[in-house]
Automatic annotation (TrEMBL), chain A:
The chain crosses the membrane at residues 12-35, 55-84, 96-118, 130-154, 186-204, 210-232, 244-267. Part of the ABC transporter complex CysAWTP (TC 3.A.1.6.1) involved in sulfate/thiosulfate import. Probably responsible for the translocation of the substrate across the membrane. This is Sulfate transport system permease protein CysT. NCBIfam families: 3a0106s02, permease_CysT. Its main location: membrane. Keywords: Membrane, Sulfate transport, Transmembrane, Transmembrane helix, Transport. The keyword Transport applies. Belongs to the binding-protein-dependent transport system permease family. CysTW subfamily.
Automatic annotation (TrEMBL), chain B:
This is Sulfate transport system ATP-binding protein. InterPro entries: AAA+_ATPase (IPR003593), ABC_SmlMolc_Importer (IPR050093), ABC_transporter-like_ATP-bd (IPR003439), ABC_transporter-like_CS (IPR017871), CysA_C (IPR041193), Mo/tungstate-bd_C_term_dom (IPR008995), P-loop_NTPase (IPR027417), Sulph_transpt1 (IPR005666). Keywords: ATP-binding, Cell membrane, Membrane, Nucleotide-binding, Sulfate transport, Translocase, Transport. SUPFAM superfamilies: MOP-like, P-loop containing nucleoside triphosphate hydrolases. The keyword Translocase applies. It comes from the Bacteria. GO terms for molecular function: ABC-type sulfate transporter activity; ATP binding; ATP hydrolysis activity. It holds the Pfam family TOBE_3. PANTHER family: SPERMIDINE/PUTRESCINE IMPORT ATP-BINDING PROTEIN POTA (PTHR42781), SPERMIDINE_PUTRESCINE IMPORT ATP-BINDING PROTEIN POTA (PTHR42781:SF4). Residues 3-237 form the ABC transporter domain.
Amino acid sequence: MKRSFSILPGFRLASGITLFYLSLLVLIPLCALVWKTTELSLDELVATLTNSRVLASFRVSILTALAAALINLFLGFVIAWVLVRYPMPFKRLFDAVIDLPFALPTAVAGIVLAALYAPDGWIGSFFTELGIRIAYTPLGIVVALMFIGLPFVVRTVEPVLQDLDSQLEEAAQSLGASPWTIFRRVLFPPLIPALLTGFALAFARGLGEYGSVIFIAGNMPMVSEIVPLLIITKLEQYDYAGATAIGLMMLVVAFIMLLVINMLQAWTRKRTGKL
Amino acid sequence: MSIEVRNITKAFDDFKALDNVSLNVDDGELVALLGPSGCGKTTLLRMIAGLDFVDEGEVWLNGENVTGKHIKQRGVGFVFQHYALFGHMTVFENVAFGLRVLKRNERPSEDQIRKRVHELLDLVQLDWLSKRFPAQLSGGQRQRVALARALAVEPKFLLLDEPFGALDANVRKELRRWLRRLHDELHVTSIFVTHDQEEAMEVASRIVVMDKGRIEQVGTPEAVYDRPASPFVSSFIGNVNVFHGRLQGGSLDTGGWQLPIRPPGSDDVGDDTPYAAYIRPHDFELLKSTEEKLPECRVKFIQPMGSVYRLEVVPEHAASDGLPEVIDVELPRRDFRALNLSVGERVYLRATETHWFEAGQPAVTGPR
């Protein structure tokens, strides 16, 4: 699309509302965050952020969010694929179930998951026999984040998959391609941008998730303590500046990650001539 | 490389899309499947391609029964109305696709693929766009790429589903001629589907007219236009004025309004036999005065259309269900000028050629 003058009226009003709303909701709170951090001197800031417990919590948060988003990327894709492409009974029911993690209070999800995956829980006991502990380890965090992040991938990929022209497949068939080749070379590439978006959303959500994680994580410092929890801990100790410093760091990490994913998307779009 | 369809029937739920359809296409022909939407023409094409499968009947390609075979094994190239190009691949990669997916031992080398693709893109005159993506091309260009892609695997048959349906009128005309020339060069047995009778007449060597899941007529463009086998064909191919009436002496009586024409060879047909006369707008003559007993009309509307003038005339002294409300007449520019008609004038109507149908069945076609 080339830039052109809009013939629709109301640009000033609409952009005014947009700017005002974004400022009120996003920019001002974020600025407050930065401003609060300036209460710390640079040395204090560095000391807070390089604290080994803080660093460990960052490692836990980023790695678990990444792992959960990757698993969701794969499974969400499979689920969307099945929901769109195959007739099956109770399809609408399944479709509605996908959205439950959106609606459920995260604490409820956390408690349920913790109970199920606890070493003596229904599912946890099964894994205990295999020698795998899920609840109260980083693995438990991944499980909680998988639950929370699943709808993002399914819901972003589903519409794109629905819009895929069935004639593309027929054209590929007429040219002699095998089903696997058709999937790999014709159907999958157009889905990549949607998959990346779903991945980014699931990852971002996982990075900030608090409610469902704290019940299943065990919250052992250095091992299964996530960044949001650490922030809460600092707040409870009235260390507001320290909490905001960590929060700011978190923001920077999230921003960089999302930026990278956005750039990836732009690159895939460019490769398909849609820019 | 002939195509033969034997007694095909296909239903989608309750809807009978094809009803006992048989068709032969000879080697090197370019045949049009023509009909209104929903007549089953696309379904028939997809059956031949192997994109859909028949309920009953058989499809034979080049003397081989391929009824149960997959499209991959039929050696057909298929071109879709909406191009179905792979959006994430360049024009070059789109055309190369069919070669790249060949099994390793059959696949040409990279150099051969490049050579072949550029040849094909030259053939469709688009080599200069080989690095573009489909989204950056015009509709006409996309369809030519789609054609090059279908030709890359050297199909024995080329099947085109409304190939120009999504294009502008001008581009459509140009591509029509181009397809005709391409077929003359390649001689691939081809079938294309269209709902545009002009397109079918211009491109095809034979036309298959379809309606409601059946084949109404198969013939050269000339034959289906001049000797329509059914009222449907007559009115679908070109415009036509329909007169329903009964034979009465030397005329067709439409109920108080006589057209002084009779089906040829109908001398032993008794009076009061119901007939329908289908007369094309250009098969009328208008006279300002006459000695003959011709029906009277009044000129209601005159529209210059370039080489012809289109007139609407209204039958006078008539109130009958068998008559069209207005009769469409087309006069060559020269004749119109010579007559010097104006709106409201009285004229006499003479039919020079008529298609006759008896009670909806084909009867006789001929002058007068």
